[in-house]
Each structure stands twice: as C-alpha cells, then as structure tokens.
Design brief:
The N and C termini lie far apart (89 Å). By secondary structure, this protein is of the alpha/beta class. The protein folds into 2 domains: 57 residues; 172 residues, 3-Layer(aba) Sandwich (Rossmann fold), CATH 3.40.50. The chain is globular, with a radius of gyration of 23 Å. It has 9 helices and 7 strands, in the order ααααααββββαβααββ. The chain has a 7-stranded mixed beta sheet, sandwiched between helices. 34% of the residues lie in helices and 15% in strands. Strand 6 and strand 7 form a beta hairpin. Helix 3 runs antiparallel to helix 4 and helix 3 crosses helix 5.
C-alpha cells in the first residue's frame, strides 16, 4: 500500500498566532468570576487580619503567599474595575454626581470648585474626575495610573486647616475592603477629620454659595441586609453619633448607595460587635467603634 501523501499546510495568519490583545484579556473575567475573585480576596484579608491579631506569623506568611497566587491587589483592582465598567452596571460616582447636583449648580459660572477626596480610586476618567466643578484628589493603596496617588487613607497626615480638608469624601466599596471591624470604625471617624464645614478656600465671605460637607458611601448590599452584626438602623446610629444625617439612599440588587451630610456635632459613642440579626446563613460583616 502506497504511503499517504501529506498535504502542505497553508501558513497561518499572523492574527492566529499573535498573543491576545489587552482588550480581549480585560473582558476574560465573567461577572461570576469577578464576584468570586473579590469575595475570595476579602476572605483572605479578613483571615490575615485575625492571624495578625493572634500573632500567628506562620499563618500570615501562608496567607500572603495565597493572596499573591491569586494575583494580589492587582487582580482585585482589575475585578473591581470590571465591576464598575459599563458592562457590569457602570460608574458609581455617577450616582454621587446626581445627588450633589443642586450644590454643583452653584459653581457653574464661577471659578470655585468642590474639593473631593476619592479613596480607593481606580480611574481618572470616571464621572467625578471629569466634572468641571469638582477638584478631585484620588488615592489608592496600589495606584494603577498617573493621577492616582499611592496612599493609605489611614496613614494620610491629618489636615492642619480647612485648605487641606474636603467638601466630599467618597468611600465607594472601600469600607468593606478594610479587613477588621475596628478598622472600619476608625475609617469612618477619620472621615470626620477630613471634612470641612467651610466654603472653598477662594470663596468670598459675601458669597451666596453654600456647601454641605458629605460622605458618599457605597457598600455591598449584603453588608447591611444579611449581616449578623450590622443593619441599616445600626449603620445610621453609628454615623449619626459622628454628626452625619442620611440625605440620600438607593439600592440595587448588589449594592447600597448612601449620601451622608455632616450637619451635627460629633458625639463619641462606642459600638460593640453585637448580634442584631441572628441566622446561620448570615455573614459576619461588622463595624466596631471604640
């Protein structure tokens, strides 16, 4: 039997052999994979914080290695960016812009701007970053692009006067990233120190412009709807003792958006980790204020 002749293969197109582009890799994570990556990262950070508190250095090193195997903070930020993309529900700061629009209208034809501190910033092109009436300072633990300062909010030097304070602080999916309950309480307390009660620095005393210092807070809905230790009522109680008044709130299937105006005097009050909503299927998200 005569041997089979092998047909010469046509050369492959370059487009079939080149590595995938950045664009195609950026959409590789499905919505489910994105959520799983974020949840896994949060769980590892929480376990690590507990190991640090107990002094278990071996476990801390093991968890650090596991976090790095999962891609570390960079992978978490990629998942967060995908979660905030138009394909996954959009930019959360659009909600903030809509809510503070009455204040922004006062600045339309003036050189004045509202100073905004965006903690955990992922982009310089979101709605608040591109608004003409906002002067945005962006910080993040691991800056992903120019225009975002690599900084831990909890380590940022306290302001010495109102020129170093902000009219609005944005904590969009940031508080839930803090791995322990006392740290979340400290973050909320620190926000008060960074909020100003005055007009922009260059506003004249005769100006009719009025500014209400505010905290824009975004959390996973499960943090207040399915936690043993935190409810919407408890969150409001905590923030009210810090001088905040709830001005706006909105829920989606996954998130809760809130705008808190700082209108009152801070009256320190401790809040312990107390079971408010018992149940086997509930999570352990909590805020402790000391």
């Amino acid at each position: 039997m005569a041997p089979k002749k092998h047909r010469s293969k046509k050369p492959k197109l370059l487009s079939h052999t080149r590595p995938p582009t950045i664009k195609s890799s950026s959409v590789a994570l499905s919505a489910k994979a994105t959520r799983n990556l974020i949840r896994s990262h949060h769980r590892l950070l929480k376990t690590r914080a507990q190991a640090v508190q107990t002094g278990d250095e071996t476990l801390v090193r093991s968890l650090d290695a596991q976090i790095q195997r999962n891609g570390g903070l960079e992978s978490y930020q990629l998942a967060s960016k995908l979660g905030q993309s138009l394909e996954r529900g959009g930019d959360s700061s659009k909600v903030m812009i809509d809510w503070i629009n009455p204040q922004l209208l006062q600045f339309k034809d003036t050189p004045l701007k509202l100073r905004v501190l965006e903690v955990g910033a992922l982009s310089t092109k979101n709605a608040c970053s591109t608004h003409d009436s906002l002067d945005v300072t962006r910080i993040d633990l691991n800056s992903q692009e120019p225009g975002i300062l690599k900084q831990d909010f909890m380590q940022r030097p306290l302001p010495s006067d109102d020129t170093e304070r902000f009219h609005i602080i944005s904590l969009s999916l940031v508080l839930n990233y803090v791995p322990d309950a006392p740290g979340r309480g400290e973050m909320l307390k620190r926000c008060v120190a960074f909020l100003t009660s005055s007009l922009p620095a260059d506003a004249s005393s005769s100006s009719s412009v009025s500014v209400i210092p505010s905290l824009f807070l975004v959390l996973p809905l499960a943090c207040v709807k399915n936690s043993r230790y935190l409810t919407e009522s408890r969150l409001e109680e905590i923030l009210c003792t810090m001088g905040f008044v709830l001005a706006k709130t909105k829920e989606t299937s996954k998130l809760i958006f809130q705008l808190w105006e700082h209108r009152q005097v801070y009256k320190p009050k401790p809040f312990k980790k107390t079971i408010l909503n018992p149940g086997k299927t509930r999570n352990n998200f909590a805020i402790i204020v000391e």
